[in-house]
């Protein structure tokens, strides 16, 4: 099978970003979230050496994007339609299929029916059309944040999300693996258990563990005695240490300090993760949450990515919507 999802560290033609555009969703966090996305776009277009294609919704969204980024070289503001900015989940996954490039689209049901918004089911088609790539639609539910890829056909995912009855009811590991093989060229699926506490995505792997090089996976280590995910992190590290990739190579596990316990205004733990970094052509951009561990996490990522500039940027307002930098982006391979 020639079909493969390129690793995120492979060269990109562009990175697509969602720009917060809906005042009724973001309320008082709208302008702060827009400023954080604008800072991300500048970093990607600058040190990241990316062509940034920023989709904004509606006249007000486009105007706000132009006011913040209209004069930034390498950033293109694209008017479009979406329910919210989580393009990793609503957009397509790009694959290389022999000599062809395809955009693979899936059904989207608002993370198991939690947040069903108009136009989210149109995002994959818009990005594929903008990229000039044919959209190949598959009739099962899958979010891009639920799977991570090493460029050799190894897919990392969680049972909590992929086998959840609120996605594809009755799916077994065997059925899921067959679907991923057909759509994305998966040659081996590595199954982890649960994701972060209070994660409305039901355990997306891009908050939990990420391929960072061939045969190398990064995952968190708890920071602080009250880290709500300490046991989950240790279980993930143990599981990964016993796994091998599609080439038969035993995985090497790198631990990255987590942000620790980050709370919302009601004192509930929220799914803040340094794992939601974005790998660009010339940089790695990691979200920070005004957390004490961010400098340690940035140092760890700098050791993993010596050929890229590692940048920490605030994602405090974006996190109020439930995700961070990786969640609002989708790379288009070169």
Descriptive report:
The chain is built from eleven helices and 16 strands. It is an alpha/beta fold and 334 residues long. It has one domain: L-arginine/glycine Amidinotransferase, Chain A (5-stranded Propeller). β7 and β8 form a beta hairpin. The strands form five sheets. The protein has a four-stranded mixed beta sheet, sandwiched between helices. It has a three-stranded mixed beta sheet with strand order 4-5-6, sandwiched between helices.
Q: Whole-number radius of gyration?
A: 18 Å
Q: How are the strands ordered across the major sheet? A: 3-2-1-16
CATH fold-level topology: L-arginine/glycine Amidinotransferase, Chain A
Tell the overall outline. Answer: globular
Number of strands: 16
CATH homology superfamily name: L-arginine/glycine Amidinotransferase, Chain A
Which structural class fits the helix and strand makeup? Answer: alpha/beta
Number of helices: 11
Which spans have pLDDT < 50 for at least 5 consecutive residues?
none
Taking the sheet with the most strands, its summary is: 4 strands, mixed
Question: How big a fraction of the residues is strand?
Answer: 25-35%
For the record, what CATH class applies? Answer: Alpha Beta
User: What is the CA-CA span between the terminal residues?
Assistant: 20 Å
Helix content: 25-40%
| Count of separate structural domains | 1
Q: Give the CATH architecture.
A: 5-stranded Propeller
SSE arrangement, N to C: EHHEHEHEEHHEEEHHEEEHEEEHEHE
Mean pLDDT over all positions: 97
């Amino acid at each position: 099978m020639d079909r493969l999802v390129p690793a995120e560290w492979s060269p990109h033609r562009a990175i697509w970003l969602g720009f917060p555009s809906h005042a009724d969703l973001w309320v008082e966090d709208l302008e702060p979230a827009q400023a954080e996305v604008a800072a991300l776009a500048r970093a990607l277009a600058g040190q990241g050496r990316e062509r940034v294609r920023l989709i904004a919704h509606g006249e007000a969204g486009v105007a706000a994007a132009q006011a913040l980024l209209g004069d930034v070289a390498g950033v293109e503001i694209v008017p479009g339609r979406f329910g919210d900015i989580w393009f990793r989940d609503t957009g397509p996954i790009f694959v290389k299929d022999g000599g062809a490039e395809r955009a693979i689209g899936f059904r989207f049901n608002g993370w198991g029916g939690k947040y069903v918004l108009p136009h989210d089911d149109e995002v994959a088609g818009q990005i594929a059309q903008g990229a000039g790539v044919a959209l190949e639609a598959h009739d099962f539910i899958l979010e891009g944040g639920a799977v991570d890829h090493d460029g050799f056909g190894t897919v990392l995912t969680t049972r909590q999300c992929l086998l959840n009855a609120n996605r594809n009811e009755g799916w077994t590991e065997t059925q899921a693996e067959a679907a991923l093989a057909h759509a994305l060229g998966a040659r081996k699926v590595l199954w982890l258990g649960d994701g972060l506490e209070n994660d409305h995505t039901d355990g997306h792997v891009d908050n939990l563990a990420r391929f960072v090089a061939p045969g190398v996976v990064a995952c968190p280590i708890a920071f602080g005695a009250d880290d709500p995910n300490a046991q989950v992190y240790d279980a993930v590290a143990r599981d990964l240490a016993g796994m091998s990739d599609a080439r038969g190579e035993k995985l090497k596990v790198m631990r990255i300090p987590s942000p620790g316990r980050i709370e919302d205004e009601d004192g509930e733990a929220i799914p803040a993760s340094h794992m939601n970094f974005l790998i660009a052509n010339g940089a790695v951009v990691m979200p920070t949450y005004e957390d004490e561990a961010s400098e340690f996490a940035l140092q760890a990522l700098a050791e993993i990515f010596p050929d890229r500039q590692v940048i920490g940027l605030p994602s405090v307002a974006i996190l109020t919507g439930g995700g961070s930098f990786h969640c609002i982006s989708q790379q288009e391979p070169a």
